[in-house]
Predict the structure.
Amino acid sequence: MFEVILKGHDKYYGVSDVLRMFFGVPEEVKDEGKVTAPDGPDIRIINELLPDGRSVTYYGDKAYEFEGEVLEPGREIKRSLYMALSDITSQKMPWGCLTGIRPTLVACEEKDAKALEEKYFVRPDKAQLAFDTSREEQRILAKVPEDSLCVYVGIPFCPSRCEYCSFVSSDISCHMDRLVNYEAALEREIMMISPAVKSSLSALYVGGGTPTVLEEKEFASLLDCIYSNLKIMPGCEVTIEAGRPDTITEGKLLSMREHGITRICINPQTMRSDTLLKLGRKHTAEDAVRVYQKAMDMGFDLINMDLIAGLPYENAEDHVESTKKLIELAPTNITVHTLYKKRRARISREQVMDHYKTRGELDKCVADSYELLKEAGYHPYYMYRQKDTGHGLENTGFAKGDTGSLYNVAMMSDCRDVLSFGAGGMSKRCFKQEGELYKHRVERCPTIKDALTYIERVEEMAEKKIAFFQI
């Protein structure tokens, strides 16, 4: 068991984040002042924060300390710990000692990509990715007024559960009776809160789950409710995460067009039909192409399509081939995710991380996909990371021209308020900090996750949000 003794600080979370990258899920043992990695080798090290703000990590007679600019304590302890672990394991992580969800936030603080390499040991290609994406994120964020509101409407149901998924979503084959009641509750919440909303809406995103899992009647009713209550003005970006091609019908596409919606997501995840079948998705790659072409013919000119690198049942070349096929379709946005271990997913952590079998292959196939996208005229416009992602990689959204999603950037930035409707949603208020350009103090207001309980307590949830936003 690998042990990290904390000395001079109590930053268990930061130590855990770094330890997780090398040895798997850590355990905080606060009564003994340490963090352990049960799956790691039998080694004990000391991670110390000195009174002058520097951090040193000790392993035997070795002391690991960064010689240069002293960072804030949380970053300092992670940096010296990363130096030690990288030396002990002979492993270097693509993102170095950066463990947060938004490396672009750190990149905003620097004048060039080289600074990320030198200060945080970020690999050159990832440093450039973060730097370039951070500038594009800030450009897009500037289009979202600070006093405006972003809205999320959540439908936590899917036609089936994918092997890699553990979202709040429910498999509707087991809960068909809940869909109608859930949609009615969602309308009730929207109608209760909307009269009190005074801010203009800059972006609205209907996500899930799979919102198009609703029957055509309920889907049309929900859109009618949204547009008649939320005062969506011209210029407000509206996105529907249609997601599964097998749930997208001509009637639902017509409902969206009637409301003027042109931005949708059609997410194949891979263009290999045999992989989709094994994962539990009830559609083929050909279905994704057919629905995409139908949507384009109907005037949906802003379409995002998702891919996941590192899926089980595929090798690295399979992902690259899927990228090529999407590029041939030429949607305006393509998002490349890296598979990560979700807490309740059927897929195991070992399958996701697979440190020793495919580390180089997955890393290379993601890089190859990025190059193909750039050569085809796409550029990265937003990016984030998640814990327990295969080989420490990231999720990156690519766009053609000025078509990047305002909602994606605003939501991920933690710089704009978000009002969330539906089970499992997270509303948040962002308060600008004096002297800080990119960091905001964020307050959050969660909605109960269970869909059935949400239906029963929807009025309570609505009143809670009205009080949270003080509207």
Summary: The chain is about 40% helix and 20% strand. Residues 341-346, 355-359 have pLDDT under 50 and may be disordered. The two ends are 52 Å apart (CA to CA). The chain has two domains: 1-90, 143-460.
